[in-house]
Write a structure and sequence with these properties.
A hairpin with a 2-residue loop joins strand 18 and strand 19. The longest helix has 29 residues. The strands form 4 sheets. This protein has a 7-stranded mixed β-sheet with strand order 6-5-14-15-16-13-17. It has a 6-stranded mixed β-sheet with strand order 8-2-1-12-19-18. It has 13 helices and 19 strands. With 388 residues, it is an alpha/beta fold.
Length: 388
């Protein structure tokens, strides 16, 4: 709102929720972040941030700190299990085109930098929101174990399994299993790598890595799998599955502690939501548009959400007008990116039949040299709205 800011409760302390809180504080709002986990997401592996995510972080005032902690991705691309290149990534060309390359950073470090932009007393950790109601049509109440918070706005950033989304849209089918599961970890010590970022596609499998500034790396393995399958020794299972894949796949696995491996099934909102807002509640990030990770855009879209919501609240005359603008600007774009990510998975990691994978690989090898750059630009070339 153009005059004095209001008060907001952000439900969920992930990347999107923290970014929204940072943005709202920038425009003078009083914000409380409520996170039901005992700690604020100091877990996870690594993340690649495309230029749209970095521009969003710049708008929030934390872009410089993130860049300083991240490693630019100038070299890498897509390979076959035997190591042949299908497509090369030219980070320098991307930097010339958009002013920055993609960067890689541990998720925990990104969370720490976002938290550092908020007063500690604005983070309510280990608390679950049990209900959201109204005291007046323009005033919300958020019930937590220790009492009731009042706010002009609630931001539902509580993830793919959002409880608030389920309450707001009881007839929506909710998240569905994508058909793929992901195992990932950060290596215990530095690894000798030839590139900053790689993915390798085999039949029904992908293995990739993101290099960090300290020489360590994040690796991920995405596999076609029924949901709920787990391994007694996940690291041993990955060593067996990728034993004959090219360098540095075995070396990355050998540099990993068994207890560092995370394993999650990948769920998405395959049925798009009809709206990202209900009354004075706005859905953001995975709660609004959970997508598969095939384009590396999940966190970047959440950061875009945060900046767009902040800008709308800063410049529109009422909360209602701001939320209408937020929905109109964010829903078409984020849902389009989610569809593109789903298609990318089906044509990439999820392809299993040898003939299909051979045709895909041939098409990638024959693609013009700038095809990879254009594919990245299609989703990453986004300009943040002004915050005032």
């Amino acid at each position: 709102m153009r005059d004095a800011g209001g008060s907001a409760v952000v439900v969920g302390g992930g990347i999107g929720g923290l970014a929204a809180a940072v943005g709202l504080r920038l425009i003078g709002w009083r914000v409380t972040v409520v996170e039901r986990a005992a700690t604020l997401a100091d877990v996870g592996a690594g993340i690649s941030l495309h230029v749209n995510g970095l521009r969003a972080l710049d708008a929030l005032g934390v872009g410089a700190a993130v860049r300083a902690a991240a490693r630019p991705q100038y070299t890498g691309g897509t390979r076959t299990p035997k190591g042949a290149w299908l497509a090369r990534m030219d980070g320098a060309a991307l930097e010339r085109e958009l002013g920055t390359p993609i960067v890689g950073i541990p998720r925990a470090e990104l969370h720490r930098l976002l938290r550092a932009a908020l007063p500690p007393d604005r983070l309510l950790v280990g608390a679950e929101v049990t209900s959201v109601g109204h005291t007046t049509p323009d005033r919300l109440t958020v019930t937590v174990p220790d009492g009731v918070l009042e706010a002009d706005l609630v931001v539902a950033a509580d993830g793919v399994n959002s409880r608030l989304r389920a309450r707001l849209f009881p007839h929506h089918p909710g998240p569905v299993y994508s058909g793929s599961t992901v195992l990932r970890a950060i290596t215990e010590h530095p690894v000798d790598l030839d590139s900053d970022f790689e993915i390798t596609w085999g039949g029904g499998a992908e293995f990739g890595h993101i290099a960090f500034t300290d020489g360590r790396a994040e690796w991920h393995a995405v596999l076609n799998s029924p949901p709920g399958v787990r391994h007694t020794d996940a690291l041993a299972a990955m060593r067996h599955r990728f034993a004959d894949w090219h360098h540095p796949v075995p070396e990355l696995l050998d540099a990993t502690r068994p207890d560092a491996v995370l394993h999650h099934d990948i769920h998405e909102l395959a049925t798009p939501l009809p709206s990202f807002t209900t009354g004075r509640i706005a859905l953001l990030g995975d709660a609004a548009h959970a997508m598969t990770p095939n384009l590396g855009q999940g966190a970047c879209q959440a950061l875009e959400d945060a900046v767009t919501l902040t800008a709308a609240l800063a410049t529109e005359p009422t909360v209602a007008a701001a939320l209408a603008r937020y929905d109109a600007e964010r829903r078409p774009r984020s849902q389009s990116v989610a569809r593109a990510a789903r298609r990318a998975g089906r044509m990439g990691q999820q392809l299993r039949h040898p003939l299909a994978t051979s045709l895909r690989d041939t098409a990638m090898r024959l693609a013009p040299s700038g095809a990879t750059l254009r594919a990245i630009l299609r989703h990453a070339d986004w300009t943040p709205p002004a915050l005032g």
